[in-house]
Amino acid sequence: LKTPLKQAATSQLVLTERQPDCQPLTTPPKPKETPPADPWTPTSNLKMLISAASPEIRSREQRRQLSDSSSEVLQTKHCLQEHLLGDEYEKSQPSRKEKSLGLLCHKFLARYPDYPSPSQKSYICLDEVTEELHVERRRIYDIVNVLESLHMVSRLARNRYVWHGRHNLPQTLQALKKVGEENKYIQQIQMIKKREYEHEFDPDGERNEEMASSFGSSEQSEMSFVELPGVEFRAASVNGRKYKSLRVMSQKFVMLFLVSTPQIVSLEVAAKILIGEDQLEDLDKSKFKTKIRRLYDIANVLSSLKLIKKVHVTEERGRKPAFKWTGPEVLPNTQDTKLEATSTTSSPPISESITSKEQCSKALFPSKGKQSFTRHSSLIKLVKSIENDRRKIQSAPTSPVKISASTYQSLPVFPNTIAQFPAITKHQLEGQSKTAEEMQMKYALSSPEPVPKSEPSQQPALSQPLGVCPASHSSVSPVILPHLQSGVSYAIYLHPSQAHTVTTYSPGFMLQPLPCANVTGIKSNNSKVLNKITTEEGDIQRGLDEPTKSLAAEERPETKSETSQRCLKRSQALPETNLIKRRKSDEESLDTSLTFFPSGYLIPLTHCTHSNKAECSTKEKAGVCSLQHTAYSSPITGVIPMPASELKTVNIPAFHITPLNIMLSPNSIAAAPVLSNSCLNSSSTSSAPNPSSSALNFMLQHIGLIPAGVQIPANPVLQHMPVSSQSENISHSSGSTNVQEGKVIKFTFYSPINESNCLFSLQPSAPKEPQEPQAVTENFFRTPGGPNTEPALSANSDGTQRTSQGTLYIPQRKLEVSED
DNA sequence: TCCTCCCGCCAAGCA
DNA sequence: TGCTTGGCGGGAGGA
User: Fold this and answer.
1) Is the CB of A241 under 7 A from strand B?
2) Lowest mean pLDDT among A330-339, A508-517, A595-604
3) What's the rounded Cα separation, in Å, for the pair A198 and A582?
4) For bias kind Basic and acidic residues, which ranges apply (predicted)?
5) pTM
6) What would the DSSP string read from start to end of A199-227?
7) Are A753 and A741 in contact (CB under 8 A)?
């Protein structure tokens, strides 16, 4: 055995095969498939060294090995090498590329039809595959794991899988997109890019330590696996490792594409998100590197599936490897697709008649393992608890009710930590992450906000109720999250290791992890936050029975206010040194606004739709913590003095808006390439009938509060109108162009948007510094007069402020995408 | 030099 | 206890 030598010619052939311009790749010719004669042995390295040291020895060794291997190859029906000598033999050796996972995946996929007949299942025997493809078993696992994440295969038994093909792919992608949207990956990407940008001003790394201490390691909390009904997940090890599984990584990676616009994701960003918190990048580079390695593995398989394609994104900070989604477009969540895939899959389809909780559970946890039973049991227990609490709250008056901390003490679901908030705060400030995270969870559970009025016949896209996942009381704490929009509900299971982390998410809820680090600016917030937690909880519960009217949203007035102030301060003209410092300071505060995302075991319960109460058992419904239509006079919204603005009319205060996330840096804008087509279209002309709506949607989509395909009219009645999310938003940018293959494309965002309803109109809520809104506008938005033109602020009729020009300009950004 | 990712060790856990 | 599964990171090929 010798070191595999370069095979330029064959490699090129293989490369050609791997880039077939979407032509189906055929199995490589047999000569190129010739495997190494021998498996690597423990002495192979020594042989390699000897071989490398002396060409003569190498040549002799080659011949000898060739002879030796020939017999084995013959035994294994691979005898080509037997007739090869010297260079020929060298050429026969597969190059590194020929052994790539992507090519191997091609071979693997070539064995099975894309759309197998549902009547006859295709089974995958790993032994056979490894033998026929002449690869290590380990490599097959890599492929199978990624395919499993897409539900193209499912594990049947030991050493045995079922091939589903692409039947499940549409449903899987839709589910992943939905989860990705709910996870606010767009925001995460924005945040990461913003930090990258700001890191240029703070290269000393000190900030990272602070962030790391603030967030701690929450990689585990990031892990979840999205299942489809009928496609069982039977990993060999159903605990522990599952949460770090390549499957989960693969799913999240795909999610990033599905929620991004354009659908290009750089490896770096993906790795950071997969790690959990990007602040760890510099502290643990090995972890980052490992993540990158895995992403390459995943990307290779996804590329073989023609779901993604490698490109390079060139930004100011350099050229980065990235991948572009080339798979099927995933339409906005619609209910009509939820069972489409399963109806054709070879796996047991979920009958729509299966709607009871028990049936859901059976379908989701068919295995006999302890885990399944435990989860099921705790699921019931949890929803019972929530149901009890919900019943209590529903019996209360419908007006906003301030729920005291003692209320929580009576909830078995919520340990008494609510009542211990002062202590928690103290611990939090002392860096006691566990307690802090517990409180984060509480806060996450208590952040609903109202939709004042909405069409009952409609199902607002924003009204996806929140599931509550306090996991500290049991090993696994499941909750069903109904999703009206798609009719797909999810059960989230918290892994025991995640119990201490903030894990809950709902589209309308911006979870606000309360930092445990000694961040100065946060201290003053905590008490207020705690107050708000206690007052908002009732809103969560009260909205249980009116989820379709709910607008999942959250407001954090204090944070918003302070953030706004910081934003304003930051935008003021300052000496550069001060600016940098301020950036650091701002970042701390911004970090505290970072959204955390769901963890655990996320399972869509497609057949348990929220709208069908008869089908969903009461207990299940109890697990739904939806939102309440809190009046504006609620103590929550009252925290921030808001003018009778248009924003208020459309319930903007319901959202926790962190405009800094979007506006602070040009990079963040580039990081949020979802330049809403509706926004840009309508805003590009002054005759747009409702620029406020456009701007509002633009911002809401940017911050992930609404999906890209949803629009909210800025009229008092909150509605949503799904629009195509597949519009090429880039093309709406001036001077932009769609990404083309094989070229370096530049597209520039210099997009005017009308500001009349823009989010920073909220800034006047900072009464102490009335002059600052001006600075904000100046800093983050450019008027047509030029980057330094100072727009004059004027009051709208509704009390909000806007620039005199009425038009905002996003700072110009460049993003180049090239494909290799 | 950096990117890419193959390779196989070895631990977890299943049968 | 052997085998399956898969996390993980060293390190080599390639650009």
Assistant:
1) yes
2) A508-517
3) 11
4) 57-66, 539-563
5) 0.44
6) HTT-TTSHHHHHHHHHH---HHHH-----
7) no
Separation of alpha carbons A623 and A376, rounded Å: 13
Which of A64-78, A100-114, A373-387 is most confident? A100-114
Residue A262's domain comprises 101-197+242-325
CA→C1' distance for A797 and C7 (Å): 60
A663 contact to strand B (CB, 7 A limit): no
Chain B, protein-covered positions (CB within 7 A): 3-10, 12-15
**Residue A747 lies inside a defined structural domain of this protein:** no
- Is pLDDT at A149 greater than 50 in this prediction? yes
The stretch A154-160 carries a mean pLDDT of: 86
CATH number at residue A292: 1.10.10.10
DSSP code at position A601: E
- Strand C nucleotides within a 7 Å radius of protein CB atoms: 4-15
Look up residue A572 and give its amino acid: Q
User: Whole-angstrom Cα distance, residue A89 to residue A98?
Assistant: 15
Confidence of residue A5 (pLDDT cuts 50, 70, 90): very low
Residue A230: pLDDT band with limits 50, 70, 90: low
CB count in 10 Å sphere of residue A168: 25
Residues 566-625/A with CB within 7 Å of nucleic chain C are none
Tell me: pLDDT of A713 over 50: no
> A294 CA to C7 C1', in Å?
10
In the 3-class helix/strand/coil scheme, how is A497-549 assigned residue by residue? HHCCCCCCCECCECCCCCCCCCCHHHHHHHHHHHHHHHHHHHHHHHHHHCHHH
| Closest alpha carbon to A271 in A211, A215, A204, A188 | A188
Distances (CA, A) of A471 to A184, A404, A494: 22, 22, 6
Instruction: Enter the DSSP assignment of A456.
Output: T
Q: What are phi and psi of A760, to 5 degrees?
A: -75, 0
**A400 part of a folded domain:** no
DSSP calls for A663-709: HS-HHHHHH-----HHHHHHHTSTT-S-HHHHHHHHHHHHTTSS-TT
State the DSSP H helix or E strand holding residue A266, giving kind and residue range, or none if neither. Answer: strand A264-266
Per the CB < 8 A criterion, the answer to whether A38 and A69 are in contact is yes
Position A311 in a domain: yes
Question: At A752, is the pLDDT very low, low, confident or very high (cuts 50, 70, 90)?
Answer: very low
Residue A211 has pLDDT above 50, yes or no: no
CA gap A566, A43 in Å, rounded: 63
Close Cβ partners of A337 (under 8 Å, ≥ 6 residues apart) = A170, A171, A174, A331
DSSP assignment string, A634-652: STTGGGS---S-HHHHTTG
A240 touches strand B (CB under 7 A): yes
A103-117, A289-303, A395-409: least confidently modelled range = A395-409
**A694, part of any domain:** no
Close Cβ partners of A595 (under 8 Å, ≥ 6 residues apart):
A184, A187, A188, A191, A505, A510, A511, A512, A513, A704
Count structural domains, chain A.
1
Q: Closest residue by Cα to the C1' atom of nucleotide B11?
A: A241
Q: Are A621 and A547 in contact (CB under 8 A)?
A: no
Per-residue confidence (pLDDT) for residue A298, from 0 to 100: 92
How many residues can be counted in chain A?
820
Query: With 70 as the cut, is the pLDDT of residue A123 above it?
Result: yes
DSSP-derived secondary structure letter, A718: B
Task: List the one residue out of A63, A98, A62, A92 whose CA is nearest residue A78.
Answer: A92
Region label for A491, one of left (φ > 0), alpha (ψ between -120 and 50) or beta (otherwise): beta
